[in-house]
């Protein structure tokens, strides 16, 4: 390239860099200066850092650590990162109507499964859809699903019984794979009425296609990164939220199950039946354009519940088991609580016992979800009514958030901030005891997100974790194995928290009765 072209390119880069940083400077908003022109997150895009580590780094940066919020440049877009829980509460809870949409976006025309689902959909469609889907996870529904979850819990024990013992009568297990198989079997059984058999069959199709959603090879990683980094380019790149063959597999399975029930008249009162009812009642979403909930749009909801459900729940479950492996005294206290309940109710603990009578179990899970939140941040887009000039950050700052600006809440970094959780890397379930829980600053603990767009399946996910842990600990003591990792590092190409290391432990038969 001739010298003059090089100089022109450098001049353009300098100008763009100056322009972006000048924007934050002009408004008195702190920011972290990163690679010229490309901006922040480039090291994540180049897979030099995991998203979790990178966001924690800029959260703790000398230029931002004392600020209520700071600015970042996501390639060519400017975004805000909110550090102060009071600001999170004001924006995402009190003023949630202006921050109801996520900024992530798929292609409305080219990816109907990816666009018309609860995770990605925008207002005014979101509210209707959430209203239709919420009844599938009420406490009465969970109570009905409970025996099915327990059945899968028993299958998990049967699977572990089949694991070869070593000469010292221990069974070595890797929790990430075990938990993913457990949660995939649960969602297939409880929501779709289908036996996925992931625990008994390593080659199960459900596990194969589920793994593909979260397996980030270079192409899939680029695909997923585009939804966050460059949503405006997604329609031109032809990227889809779900891998095509996973989408095809689930569509076939779900359509077959719907057709089977319509022919047989069987009613299990589960998610598939709710979908059939929505179709028969000619339910629609939207105010001006009324979009019917049928065909692919109906199937998209099932596919999304599948995606949103098993990986998240399996992540919380496997990290909880990992911490119980490393903290035998916490495990012992939990086993005593389980033992007391078994003495009272017998081995098949009732739903009410798990939900209401096991406070320590709840504390252990809450602490695991604090230390290992599934997502690095939750995100929204400022969405103002027509004619509005911006969202004022009074009384925190005089910056006015422009319409469509993305807003990130770095939950992983906030959960590990000593200001809110002293000695943050210590696994200490007592932070969530009755006496201590009141001192947790509102909106400093958000493993399921915050505001009206919070996780729809939080109770369902927690119930699964509770069933798996009580079943496992009622039969086995978990011990460190030679392969148990001392510390964890996180995958650089994943958008959910994934350790590079396997979460290995030895299981010792020690039945509570
Ligand atoms: C323990 C396991 C789980 C964790 C830690 C978790 C976490 C989250 C988080 C952080 C969000 C984003 C919330 C926000 O933006 O404010 C979310 C959204 C969501 N989750 Fe979960 N989740 C879990 C289990 C589940 C399960 C079992 C289901 C399905 C039944 C589910 C369905 C959803 C859906 C549909 C959304 C989008 C809600 C909306 O936009 O209206 N999640 N989850």
From TrEMBL:
The keyword Isomerase does not apply. Pfam families: p450 (PF00067). GO terms for cellular component: endoplasmic reticulum membrane. PROSITE patterns: CYTOCHROME_P450. Keywords: Endoplasmic reticulum, Heme, Iron, Membrane, Metal-binding, Microsome, Monooxygenase, Oxidoreductase. GO terms for molecular function: heme binding; iron ion binding; monooxygenase activity; oxidoreductase activity, acting on paired donors, with incorporation or reduction of molecular oxygen. It is a peripheral membrane protein. Its cofactor is heme. The keyword Membrane applies. SUPFAM superfamilies: Cytochrome P450. Heme binds at residue 455. It is found in: Endoplasmic reticulum membrane; Microsome membrane. This is Uncharacterized protein. The gene is 5565728.
